[in-house]
Amino acid sequence: MIESVGKKRYILWGLAAAVLSMMALLICFLALRVYPFGDHSVLTNDGYVQYVDYFRYLKKVMSGNAEIGYSFSKSLGGSLIALFGYYLASPLNLLLYVIPIEKIEFFVFAITVLKVGLCGFTFSLFIRHRLENLRPAFALILSLAYAFTQYNVGQLSNVFWLDGVYMLPLILWGIWRYVSEKKKGMLYVSIALSILFNWYTGYMNCLFAVFYFIYEQVLWNYEHGILTFKRTAGQFVRFCILELLGVLLSCALFLPVVFGQSSGRGALDSGIFSFGTNGSFLDIFRGFMIGTPNIGLPFKDDTITLFCGVFLLICGIAYFSYREIKPFHKICMAVLIGVMVLSEFIQPLEHIWCGFKFEDSFQFRFAYITIFTVIFAAARGMERFEHVGEKLFLKICGGCIAAALIFDLLRPFNSTALWIQNGLLIFYGLVIWLYFRKENLRKLCLMAVGLVFYAEILANGYWVASENYQKPAGAYEAYSAGQEKLTASIKNYDQAPFYRMEQNENRDRKPYDHSFFSNESLAYGYSGIQQYSSSYDKKTADFIHWSGYCKVEFPSLYHEPILTSDSLLGVKYLMSSKDYEGFEKIADFTECNGKSVYVNPYALGLGFGVAEQALENIEAGNQIEVATIAADNPFEFQNKMFSALLGEDMRVYTPVSAEAVYDEASEQMYFTLPSVDEESVVYGYTRSALDDIPMFINEKFSGNYWNIWGASGVYSVGASKDVQNPEVRRVRFDVKDIDAEVIREAVIAKRKLEAGAGSDTVNIPEPWIDSVFYKLNMDVFEQVIQRLRENEFQTEIFTDGFVTGNYTASEDGWLMLTIPNDGGWEISVNGETVSARDGINTFMTIPMKAGQNRVELTYHPKGIPTGIILSVGSVIIFAGWIFTERRKDRNR
User: Fold this and answer.
1) Angle between the 136-147 and 310-321 helix axes, to the nearest 10 degrees?
2) Mean of the per-residue pLDDT values for the chain?
3) Are 546 and 637 contacting, i.e. CB atoms less than 8 angstroms apart?
4) Distance from the CA of 767 to the CA of which of 35, 192, 395, 558 falls in 20 to 30 A?
């Protein structure tokens, strides 16, 4: 009965931590006027750019209108298992089942608040069981610090990472039970669940679990007088086996995720072990300052933030300052904190924690673990709070004030933050002094500490999150209603089993700008080209950027149509705010979100007969360097591609010479093109050492040209008949104030060469900008399309993961479907299983016999059978381990 009452108290205090954590977030949202308390959207950063579209897709899955195993809405088609395991596997996403799709913003708001509350709840359970002598009030403060500290507030846009934050205390509680009671079940299950809910943070939690186990086991052995290397090594091996079994338990989902993820970025980014540091070592100590807003920024910032409350800072220092605590305990705690802090400071270690990858945004993604170690040290200090005495606490407060002032002299803090920090140190110092001097005021002092601490984390949360919420509430829902209507009208207009559609403008109405709303095909259930997620397919992404849609493989963007590529890939409909050559506007459609509907009369079907040369590798060349642009560009790649498809040389594109002039007075780069025949369409392609350059086509502003992140690709200069003065056709880049030193050096080098200086004496910088222009030979292109249409695949069924149709071959040959070739497809031709090869480096190309051929494709996500076997095997081994140990215990 007593034990039952104790459990209820633990749960009640945990619920109190959860409620107060959620209240803190609600108050912060209220102050920031964030939905549903104001006109600022809860959708921010990648939450707005990416994840909200994934949630719409998940809603379609729950409604039975989409699949997780495979989707043709993921770029040109691909498995969704890896994307699901990274972004969508949280159990709280089940709430989406009962929330209307029109209320996506409310759903995001709800799961964000609940996850913050869960962080407080699980930490409370952990700390109350781990430190049984800790005052409940202190446990509550610590739980609030963990739930509403820098990481959680800063990472609200990456809400799926918060699953790792609330699972970490459960894993560490499981480790404590394993060390102290030899109970394995909680650790075994919590490891698996953390990976299932989000494998990325699950990986980080598993990695930290190793260090935390060593900390706990070494201290346990030390306290019980059994600390030897041999014994500890044996215990460590058994722990690793148990953790491995937990990982294997998750493999029913995790293994398919691994297979899916491996098709994108490689397992190891090159150069991650090159030594470097994030800022200076002294800056680490500046990270304890209130309001340090680095965590959660969508760009890199080297500031290491460790703030979790001034009161916790005082108690953490007290733990290391109190003489009665054994030095060995302090050393173990210092090592645990040091490992995590150095992991943030030393870049190669940081990359290991991030899965052996560079993180180009949202730096220190594992910072919640580092902050946990600081909070845990503070908890150990609070555990001895009554014994430390006011003198030591006052010395600590005075020392922290002095340190803050010294650091401010070296490199000034924000003055408001500095004086708030010092004011809090003075306040806590006085309250602690009063606590020890006036026994009858102790409860009042604890209440004062709790209230001020709560106000402190609220102020810090407001400070950190104040710049995150800039989008207007309701804007996404208004846009999505229009987009749903537009895409549905196209599907009703054309009910053919296969075609793709795309758009030239994102939901922020910024064509050719630095925006990545590339998952709308998933959100609105149509087949498209672009995609933006960390779980992408490299083979598909390579083809998209080789074809000229963008310059990099990640993300895959579609800035505007390329008639040849669109036609090959079956892009039949274009949702566009402007006209493009070759696309015909359909008057039957009502404009939505500023976009009309255009049809591409040249769009091909899903498949067609191709020559055997299509199976040969097509060299794409260097797609990055400015100097190689004349030889390695999308136009030359497409010439090779169409030639391979038809088995003969097809010059769909031919180069157009352009005069390049840099005008020093206006600081503008001009590319002037000669007149071409009236029916030809001219396209351009630019590479540059510069980025975000204003671009004008035929004297009309086109947008900012992006060369690196969000890399712009091929752009249309238009047909001669569409240009007012075909004799003066040009593309202009306004390079004023953009990397002027590079331009200056290039101009000086050019002048020296023109003055007769030898090239060996002139330091010529890398070309800083260059463009190539090609005309699309419409007669050749129409011939190519006509020949491919003569041998088209007749699609009957085209649904996620399943395709059927018929193909008539005049002779033995090859059928290429514009579906990326993936080992998960089971291919049947006339009832016989066959294997596909890569056509034009990418697409499923199937051997055909002369005559009628019935083709059927079924997708089976890779790794599921093996993953299930591993999970079942894990359960059997774990159960056998438990049974064997219990049997030994009974026989003793």
Assistant:
1) 120
2) 88
3) yes
4) 558
* 286-326 pLDDT, tens digit each: 888 887 765 545 555 667 888 899 999 999 999 999 999 99
H or E segment at 393? helix 390-410
Tell me the domains of the chain and their CATH numbers.
2-32+79-465 (no CATH), 783-862 (2.60.40)
- Give the 3-state secondary structure of residue 688: strand
Cis omega (within 30 of 0) for bond into 601: no
The number of CA neighbours under 13 Å toward the Cβ of 802 is 6
Taking the CA atoms of 219, 220, 225 and 229 in sequence, report the sign of the dihedral they define: negative
* Stronger pLDDT, 838 or 738, i.e. the higher one: 838
Peptide bond into 694 cis (omega under 30): no
Choice among 11-20, 33-42, 441-450, 690-699 with the minimum mean pLDDT: 690-699
Neighbouring CB atoms inside 10 A of 699's CB total 12
Cα–Cα dist 298/468, whole Å: 10
d(CA 541, CA 550): 10
Question: Which of 711, 693, 477 lies closest to 593 in space, CA to CA?
Answer: 477
3-class DSSP state of 592? strand
Each residue's pLDDT tens digit, 204-241 = 999 999 999 999 999 999 999 999 999 999 999 999 99
Residue 424 CA to residue 456 CA, distance in Å, equals 9
* Residue ranges of E strands in 241-349: none
pLDDT of amino acid 414: 82
Q: Any idea what the Cα angle at residue 834 is, between residues 833 and 839, rounded to 5°?
A: 150
- Lowest average pLDDT, out of 54-58, 81-85, 510-514, goes to 510-514
Contact 610, 814 (CB under 8 A): yes
DSSP secondary structure string for all residues of 448-490: HHHHHHHHHHHHHHHHHHTTT--SBTTHHHHHHHHHHHHHHHH
